[in-house]
Amino acid sequence: MRRVRVSCAATGPLEGTDLQTVPHEDNKALALLGYFEYRTTDIGPYNEACLAILTIARGDPIPAWYVTNLSVTTSAAYSAGRDWDFNKLVTAIEVERKGNDFLTIVRDPGQRKKS
Prior knowledge:
Blueprint (H helix, E strand, L loop, with lengths): L18 E3 L9 E8 L7 E12 L6 E9 L2 H7 L6 E3 L2 E6 L2 E6 L9
Parallel strand pairs: 4-5
Antiparallel strand pairs: 1-3, 2-3, 3-4, 6-7
């Protein structure tokens, strides 16, 4: 997993939730992008990409990651996590490796891989 600080809204309510973003440097929210390649699982191999925001719930002093989007590559992976109420979708996620470097491409649903 790679953590990347991105410029997003200053601290405040996270739209559609009862959560607040946690301020970081320059009063920006902290986001996490995660890319995973599951090679061996009970539901078969699949790839996953997520976007999470560091948040805090009213009355709870401990911050936690709120997963805003969770993309997966198979219907089985989609079904497996729906009981956790993640905002999931099935789409193409390609992972390419060259030595210690990797590139992950998350496609919009319905977009075909370029040949």
